[in-house]
Amino acid sequence: MSTTSSLLVKAAGRFVLFMAGVFLLLFAANLRARLYYHGPNYGFLFWIFLYCVLTGIGLLKHRKWAVLLLFFLGALFAIIFAYSWIKGARVPMPWALLNYGFVAALLGVPILMLRRWTDLRW
Predict the structure, then answer these.
(1) What is the pLDDT of residues 20-37, one digit of tens each?
(2) Count of domains in the chain?
(3) Which residues, including other chains, have CB under 8 Å from residue 84's CB and lie 6 or more apart?
(4) For the chain, which terminus, N or C, has the lower number of CB atoms within 10 Å?
(5) SS3 string of the chain?
(6) Is the confidence at residue 5, as pLDDT, over 80?
């Protein structure tokens, strides 16, 4: 595996594991709020944490299925974004650029990893 693609995959894996820690912290804070203050139930944060852990570990081990999981998330957000754009949801320009950048990053990083598909293992 070339060093450039290896660095990209490992950096993405570390970032996804960092985000897993963030989502676990958010879930713990929400659990505390639910127990003490009868706050809302944001149980989906735990599932996002599990997704991030699974994808991050897979990326650190250079697995093809982890790249597919990462690509699935980008494709899902692109579909949601396109659907809302077709339905007429409009956003002011600075925030629209942020949305475009978010979708481009979620699709661009896995596409860069797909270029080195043969270097990854199942």
Answers:
(1) 999 999 999 999 998 898
(2) 1
(3) none
(4) C
(5) CCHHHHHHHHHHHHHHHHHHHHHHHHHHHHHHHHHHHCCCCCCHHHHHHHHHHHHHHHHHCCEHHHHHHHHHHHHHHHHHHHHHHHHCCCCCHHHHHHHHHHHHHHHHHHHHHHCCHHHCEC
(6) no
Tens digits of per-residue pLDDT, 33-72? 988 988 888 888 999 999 999 999 998 998 889 988 988 8
pTM of the model: 0.81
The CA-CA-CA angle for residues 46, 5, 108, to 5°, reads 60
Give residue 9's domain range: 3-119
Phi-psi region of 38 (alpha: psi -120 to 50; beta: other; left: phi over 0): left
Number of other residues whose CB lies within 10 A of the CB of residue 74 = 19
% of the chain at pLDDT higher than 90: 26
